[in-house]
Amino acid sequence: MTKKQRNSKNTYVLNLIILVIIFVFGFGCKKQIQDENYFPHGGGSWWRYQDTEMPGYFIREFSGNTLIGNINAQNWVKTFYDTAGTQLAVETNYVLVTDTMVLFYEDIYSDSYIYLKFPLEVDSAWTFLIDDDPINARIDNKEDLTVPAGTFSDVWLVRYDDPENEETRYIYYAPNVGIVRDYAIDYDSELVYEEVLLDYQAKQ
Question: Closest Cα to residue 101, out of 113, 118, 84?
């Protein structure tokens, strides 16, 4: 084997090793957004809910962005209507979806409420603070759920315990839909509120 052939062979082997390293550490370890489809947040998305304790309904929709500190959050507008469809009130909350979590802000001054942490797994748990009070979140299970908007499979049920206010909140997230049911009970097992999905248009 000539020197030129040896050099050519060594170059081939070296290139092969580099390709293997790129595949293993590049593609094999590539970070991907996990379960983001459980909280669709594209522009033009809307969801219509009914509060079972009150007449009328409300619509959630994404519309524009707002800077909260150095965070560019999406405006999540909530518009209330009476049973005749007359608009009653509008409030704006804010959402930030990252590759690790979904953050909800009641207003631009509030602490963030961690709706979801990715990846989604049964018994996955996290804690966050609202006004210095801890909220303990845990994914209870995955199940099928029927609401007025339809029957959904692979729905994650997330439980949020609020010891300070003696309440527990439950939110059900369906793939490619988002929140399909949201309710809270107090420590006496009395219903605080319940919201169920009537219809929707969800975009990624």
Answer: 118
